Amino acid sequence: MTSYHIPAIFSDFSDLIAAESTRHGGVSPAPFLSLNLGINTNDEPDSVNENRRRFFLSLGIDDVDRRFASSHQVHGMEVLYATEAGRFDGYDALITDKPGLFVGVTVADCTPILIYDKANRAVAAIHAGWRGTSGEIVAKTLITMEQQFGTSAANCYAYVGTCIDECSFEVGPEVAERFAPEFVQKDAQTLKDCVNLKAANRQQLIRFGVPSTQIEVSSFSTVLNNDIFFSYRAENGQTGRMLAIIGIKAIIGIKS
């Protein structure tokens, strides 16, 4: 099986690289089997580094330490304008307009959102769990892009990536009440509330003005498709992490 999925919404942009990883194609043993890209796991660091090297190289990106910006995510609302590679701390969204610099987020049930502003050649990678989603981190990121790059909604293309599905994401009432009723449903058997993270994040894109025809929502679920993707909930916390990345190609170090 392939080690990554390319969102179709970005297929017309030859100078863009955007992808989300799967759990296949790596060297990690169980329970991180096999393409664990998460640094903050109990997996062997050498295995994670090799997995990351393989993932980025499969996308045509070499010298990843000089080309990738990420952050230790804290389920917060802070947005980083990345101008150089590195691992930062405290940000759950990263934006950049620097060619050859890629931004990304790690997930294993939370929602990854990738955005491309074709007019300003700027990108965003967003990590949205229930806290980030209810706090509208997607909207905040878009506003930050508007302020930083002059981004307008009409020029944006977005991918709401693979995460836990609405049938599997049972939450308590204290979480459910943070979401509009349209994003909450009762499980017919357990009568517990379930939240639709994909729909809630998609709605933030639409409210900003991104045309619905320029938004793609993943048809996969980390829980229902656990053979393809890692799921923190389905695997009781002992599992790997996927990466969702995006960036503009540069001539040096990026293969066509």
Automatic annotation (TrEMBL):
A Pfam short name: Cu-oxidase_4
Top-level taxonomic group: Bacteria
Key words, A-Z: Hydrolase, Metal-binding, Transferase, Zinc
Catalytic activity: adenosine + phosphate = alpha-D-ribose 1-phosphate + adenine; adenosine + H2O + H(+) = inosine + NH4(+); S-methyl-5'-thioadenosine + phosphate = 5-(methylsulfanyl)-alpha-D-ribose 1-phosphate + adenine; inosine + phosphate = alpha-D-ribose 1-phosphate + hypoxanthine
InterPro entries per the UniProt record, alphabetical: Cu_polyphenol_OxRdtase (IPR003730), Cu_polyphenol_OxRdtase_sf (IPR038371), Cytotoxic_necrot_fac-like_cat (IPR011324)
Secreted recorded as keyword: no
Entry annotated with the keyword Zinc: yes
Coiled-coil zones: none
PANTHER family: PURINE NUCLEOSIDE PHOSPHORYLASE LACC1, UNCHARACTERIZED PROTEIN YFIH
Family according to the record: Belongs to the purine nucleoside phosphorylase YfiH/LACC1 family.
Record's protein name: Purine nucleoside phosphorylase
